[in-house]
Design goal:
alpha/beta; 5-stranded parallel β-sheet; 3-stranded antiparallel β-sheet; 8 helices; 8 strands; about 50% helix; about 15% strand; binds BIS(adenosine)-5'-pentaphosphate; binds magnesium ion
Length: about 230
């Protein structure tokens, strides 16, 4: 069976990470989030982390050449052999083109694209209460999705912290950048019939049920006919 690729788009705080991890685990695919990889580099104090932090803390996108190289390297690792759920990549048209080329080289393509929609007001509320695991990057929310033990990750026991790109001003900039640079990428996938829009304001489990149902429809069809599409 050829590898399968699902993309998850959405503005900041939409729930890309929350849903992407769960969907990848459910489908047996790798979960790859460009923002998480950047934050791991920042934590580790690497040169890539130093470059990325300058952009992230201003709510701007990290340059394409840095981002593409990093994500394509991650996609080539053994745990992504069966495919991946990509959270936050591609975010620009050059990134989308680079991804398409890399997947074509392995006889694959993007199978399904989700756009989780929420308002900026809802995003502000959510990120204010968000705590993230320093070790595995899983996200929690003090109001809507609290950890079982305060300050500790349910998955790996790591310490929870608050991100440095969460000020109201940075969040506003991230929203603007999303609409300027990433919505055109969504239109590219919409034109190819791959886009499924999801109301992200629903509770976490309700959003997940919609994602899973769409994935089952598409992959059921791929398994049966050898072709993609929604
Ligand atoms: P990234 O880390 O991807 O940030 P983002 O896109 O701004 O999205 P977030 O991670 O803030 O939100 P999310 O949608 O994952 O929501 P979450 O599940 O955590 O990118 C950060 C930066 O890295 C970028 O600004 C850029 O600088 C750089 N970067 C990354 N990729 C790049 C690329 N391809 N090119 C260039 N630069 C790139 O949920 C949010 C909160 O809400 C949590 O507390 C969660 O528990 C809670 N929650 C989730 N769902 C629900 C729900 N349904 N109901 C109630 N609460 C919920
Ligand atoms: Mg995220």
């Amino acid at each position: 069976m050829r590898p399968r690729y699902i993309l998850i788009f959405g503005p900041p705080g939409a729930g890309k990470g929350t849903q992407g991890r769960r969907l990848a685990a459910e489908l047996g695919l790798a979960y790859i989030a460009s923002g998480d990889i950047f934050r791991q580099h920042v934590e580790a104090g690497t040169e890539l982390g130093r470059i990325a932090k300058e952009y992230m803390d201003r709510g701007l996108y990290v340059p394409d050449e840095v981002t593409v190289k990093m994500v394509l390297e991650r996609l080539g690792r053994p745990d992504a052999e069966r495919g991946a759920v990509l959270d936050g990549f591609p975010r620009t048209l050059p990134q989308a083109e680079a991804l398409e080329k890399a997947l074509a080289e392995r006889g694959a393509e993007v199978d399904l694209v989700f756009y989780i929609k929420i308002s900026e007001a809802e995003a502000q509320r959510r990120v204010q209460g968000r705590w993230v695991c320093r070790n595995c990057q899983a996200a929690y929310n003090l109001e809507t999705n609290p950890p079982r033990v305060p300050g500790r990750c349910d998955v790996c026991g790591g310490e929870l912290y608050q991100r440095t790109d969460e000020t109201p001003e940075t969040l506003r900039r991230r929203f603007e950048v999303f609409f300027e640079q990433t919505v055109p990428v969504l239109e590219y996938y919409r034109a190819r019939g791959l886009l499924v829009e999801i109301n992200g304001k629903q509770p976490i489990d309700a959003v997940f049920r919609e994602l899973k149902a769409a994935a089952d429809r598409v992959f059921g069809r791929i398994a049966g006919s050898g072709s993609g599409g929604v």
